Amino acid sequence: MALTCCAAEPAASRVPVTALVFTPSGDALLASGKRAILVYAATDASLQRTLPSNLPRISSMAFNPKGDLLAVGGGVPGSNGSVQLFDWKGNSDTRELTNRSDLVTSVAFSPDGHWLAMAGSDARVEIMSVRDRGDILTPHLALSGHAGPVLAVAFGPDGRLIATASADRSVKVWDASSGKLTLSFSHHTAGVHCLAFRPQDRMSSTDSRPAFCASGSDDQTVRVWQPEIGRMVRIVRHHQGPTFALVYSRDGSALFSAGREGIVRVIDADSDTILREWQAHQDWIYAMALSPDGRTLATGDWSGQIKLWEAATGKLVAASKQ
User: Fold this and answer.
1) How far is C-alpha 247 from the chain's CA centre?
2) What is the mean pLDDT of residues 257-284?
3) What is the CB neighbour count within 10 angstroms for residue 113?
4) Which of 124, 154, 164, 274 shows the greatest Cβ crowding within 10 Å of its Cβ?
């Protein structure tokens, strides 16, 4: 089915921004809307069009590495969960996976695009094998072991491991090939909302850095782990509220964090130093995204507003109309 669209969204229908992702070309920013994906211009945050979605609530969005397949996860909390797949370049929806008994909270593609991970409030994570722009999906793995809703899932930079975060206060690490649970971190003292892996230079044969993964929690901390060896590297305190969104800079030198305070913080990736921070929103920030070139940081809040920032300076570039 071809994707139809309309040019604008009435202000009354605005809903909290719970998912953000830049298009692979970097010319547009996709945001969660009310049964729709909102497409904003990446230059001035003007709403260009809306794409209809079957999901009453959208929790997460992710492009595959080729940029031709968009996965959108969501559903109805406590009732059902689904993942919609869109052939982005073909401008059509491919299929919908509707076998979850609760909200799909997070979706992620493996670095090679062969696997799609889907985490949910039903405490389960499913890994699907993906072929032919999503026309063919087959079950690969089912990860079970969390005692509460799984709120985030992410693949490691080389695709060999999967990290999951949960309301049960834990971060777990799984072997991506076998689904075996390899490590479980229980250092957080409250639910864990978000994960981000530090980028590695896959074009360089000399980049031997171990994998680093950051997690953000209700306990007002960001923690950094080495998931391959089971070591917590550091705790970044300096937060006065829960962290809902994390994203590393493209070169891996800095980590952006945001949450209930509406403040964006830039954390030195090799220490717990806050390099700078700014009051980005007057409401809770639920989602962040970094442009493909690493120059623009997007934030979205509870009121439905989108803002674009210069990632290097924190200078406001544009804001969506309220």
Assistant:
1) 8
2) 97
3) 17
4) 164
Residue 163 C-alpha from the chain's centroid: 13
**Which DSSP helix (H) or strand (E) runs through 83?**
strand 80-87
Closest CA to 126 of 147, 148, 169, 97: 97
Q: What is the mean pLDDT of residues 40-54?
A: 95
HSE (CB half, 13 Å, CA atoms) of 117? 30
Asked if 10 and 299 touch (Cβ cutoff 8 Å), the reply is no
Burial class from Cβ neighbours inside 10 Å (0-12, 13-18, 19+) for residue 317 reads middle
- Please give the C-alpha separations between residue 151 and each of 59, 154, 169, 174, in angstroms, as whole numbers: 10, 11, 10, 16
Determine which of 12-16, 51-55, 156-160, 221-225 has the lowest per-residue pLDDT on average. Answer: 12-16
What structural domains does the chain harbor?
Answer: 11-198+209-319 (2.130.10.10)
Residue 7 burial by CB count (10 A; 0-12/13-18/19+): exposed, middle or buried?
exposed
**Residue 300 region, left (φ>0) first, then alpha (ψ -120 to 50), else beta?**
beta
Can you give the pLDDT at residue 1?
44
pLDDT number for residue 13: 53
- Mind giving me the DSSP string for 256-312? EEEETT-EEEEEETTSS-EEEEEE--SS-EEEEEE-TTS-EEEEEETTS-EEEEETT
List of residues 6+ apart from 313 with CB closer than 8 A: none
| Residues comprising the chain, all counted | 322
User: Is the pTM of the predicted complex or chain greater than 0.90?
Assistant: yes
Q: What sign does the CA torsion over 32, 34, 40, 46 have?
A: negative
Q: Which helix (H) or strand (E) holds 125?
A: strand 124-131
CA distance 235 to 260: 19
